[in-house]
Structure formats: structure tokens, C-alpha cells
Specification:
Elements: H1 9-19, E1 24-28, E2 31-34, H2 35-51, H3 68-76
Antiparallel strand pairs: 1-2
Pfam family, one: AMP-binding
Protein name: AMP-binding enzyme
Domain AMP-dependent synthetase/ligase: 16-77
Length: 77
């Protein structure tokens, strides 16, 4: 019997930010964002969600164009 694997994208993001903060996370159009800056902006947005009452298990909807903002929202939620 197989055991479920706990795959958490945020854990992967934090690992990369710790061990390769200067490496690019997102390259979108003419902008490149490294792990350090991307992770910091995700933390700020996650804090804003928490202050707004969003908690564990809540669903967050986002409507927008394909962009790095989408990725920030996905990781922060």
C-alpha cells in the first residue's frame, strides 16, 4: 500500500529562497524576479490575506491575466 506524499509548493519556494535567493523565480515579459524578492512579496501578500480574515482551509479566488501577480497570489493563498 502506498503512502500519500505531502507535496507543498510553498515549501519548495522557501527552500529555493533560502539556498538560491539570487536565482530567478519568474521571468515574465521584460521583468525577472529572484527568489528573495518573490518570496518577500508572497509573505507580504499572505500577511494581508491573514489580516483580512483569510485562514487555513479558506478558498481565495483571483481573476486576472497570466502574469507573475497570479503566481504571487497562488503562493500567498
Amino acid at each position: 500500500m502506498s503512502h500519500p506524499v505531502n507535496i507543498n509548493p510553498v515549501r519548495g519556494l522557501l527552500y529555493q529562497a533560502r539556498y538560491g535567493p539570487e536565482h530567478p523565480t519568474v521571468i515574465y515579459e521584460d521583468e525577472t524576479v529572484d527568489y528573495a524578492h518573490f518570496t518577500e512579496s508572497v509573505r507580504r501578500l499572505a500577511g494581508a490575506f491573514a489580516r483580512s480574515g483569510v485562514g487555513t482551509g479558506d478558498r481565495v479566488a483571483s481573476l486576472g491575466l497570466n502574469s507573475e501577480v497570479f503566481l504571487r497570489t497562488m503562493f500567498a493563498a
